[in-house]
Amino acid sequence: MSATAAQHPPFGSVFADVMAIAWYRDGQWGPSSVVPLAPIPLHPAAHVLHYASECFEGFKAYRWADDRIHLFRMDRHLARFRQSAESLVLPVPEARFVGDMVTALIERCHAVVPEAPGALYLRPALIGTTANIGAAAAPSTEACLMVLASPVWDYFSGGAKPLKIWVEEHATRCASHLGCTKTGGNYAAALGPTMAARRAHQVDQVLFCPGGDVQETGAANFLLIREGHILTRHLDRSFLHGVTRDSLLTMAGDLGYRVEERAFSVDEMVQWVKTGEAALSGTAAVLAGVGSLQRAGETITVGDGQVGVHTQRLRSALVEIQQGRAPDRHGWLQTV
Ligand code: PLP
Ligand code: COI
């Protein structure tokens, strides 16, 4: 897999030819198995299809230069997966049960894990399968847990190109109590405002700032960065608690940055980016630099409009750990 970036398939569009799957019935999980990737049997009345009982996760496994495969912070992702399941009143699988499905799957599709700068993106998804369209106000008593594997490269087509962001000061990304739940409905809810902003303002992403309060984009957290200082929203229920965010903040502290976690307004952000940097963080995005912010009637260039030096430095520091070229001081990697 040494093809140039231009030849790589779009993020998440190709899959290993196997997947892991398990079903929950009669109050317990049945055995999991690794099977050929194929459509799954689902009743048309399945709870997920009508009442959106679904949550998922996304994390990566890296092939190091010595050919061994390493998972990055799967424990944190599985803890979040369990919290998401609990908040949607879905059966909550043990972290170990899901982790074993992931490692069994990787063992079966070892060959398709790309070399750096690619990775294998793992996507556990949990859906409510009870066939009952009357169960609008009742949880699904049956469920399916599957894990997909997808060889990935850059999430944002254009690689290291600075992003154009629409600052959305009215629409919310999701229901206020579900910001830190990773559920498909949140992405569906963000789609309308995102497509409208793309059409009207030709932006790449939308930063949700309801009432002027900066939260996050549709699929990544938001960080303000400058010499020796990082500012990002404190953990509350309004946004997804990113594992990449946590890793970057930890690394930034190690590198001597002051890490400030608190609420901040659009006006403060606009002041910051006159001389500072802005970036999106996430498993898929890694740390992607923002080049400009667009707000009703106004385009604000972030710094000099290019990906900032601190953004590049922090991104490289993280990627070096993930790819085994820098020491894993915090015990974030697990060999498969
Ligand atoms: N926020 C949203 C809405 C996301 O979809 C993601 C991606 O998973 C993130 C933030 C970043 O989370 P993480 O760094 O755990 O991938
Ligand atoms: C991730 O970074 O894992 C995400 O969830 C982004 C995804 C929705 C493509």
List the keywords.
single chain, 336 residues, alpha+beta, D-amino Acid Aminotransferase, Chain A, domain 1, D-amino Acid Aminotransferase, Chain A, domain 2, 2 domains, nine-stranded antiparallel β-sheet, 28% strand, globular, disordered N terminus, binds pyridoxal-5'-phosphate, binds 2-OXO-4-methylpentanoic acid
Report what the structure shows.
The chain has helices at residues 47-51, 74-87, 95-108, 184-201, 243-254, 266-272, 309-322, and strands at residues 18-25, 28-29, 33-36, 54-56, 59-63, 69-72, 119-128, 143-152, 163-168, 205-208, 216-217, 221-226, 229-232, 258-261, 277-282, 286-295, 298-301, 333-335. The protein is an alpha+beta fold and 336 residues long. The chain folds into two domains: 5-152, Aminotransferase class 4, branched-chain amino acid transferase, N-terminal domain (D-amino Acid Aminotransferase, Chain A, domain 1); 163-322, D-amino Acid Aminotransferase, subunit A, domain 2 (D-amino Acid Aminotransferase, Chain A, domain 2, Alpha-Beta Barrel). Strand 5 and strand 6 form a beta hairpin. Helix 5 (243-254) packs across helix 7 (309-322). The two termini are 20 Å apart. Residues 1-5 have low confidence and may be disordered. It binds pyridoxal-5'-phosphate and 2-OXO-4-methylpentanoic acid (COI). 2-OXO-4-methylpentanoic acid binds next to loops.
Topology diagram in text:
Blueprint: E1 18-25, E2 28-29, E3 33-36, H1 47-51, E4 54-56, E5 59-63, E6 69-72, H2 74-87, H3 95-108, E7 119-128, E8 143-152, E9 163-168, H4 184-201, E10 205-208, E11 216-217, E12 221-226, E13 229-232, H5 243-254, E14 258-261, H6 266-272, E15 277-282, E16 286-295, E17 298-301, H7 309-322, E18 333-335
Parallel strand pairs: 9-10, 9-16, 13-14
Antiparallel strand pairs: 1-2, 1-3, 1-8, 4-7, 5-6, 5-7, 6-18, 7-8, 10-11, 12-13, 12-15, 15-16, 16-17
Bound molecules: pyridoxal-5'-phosphate (PLP) and 2-OXO-4-methylpentanoic acid.
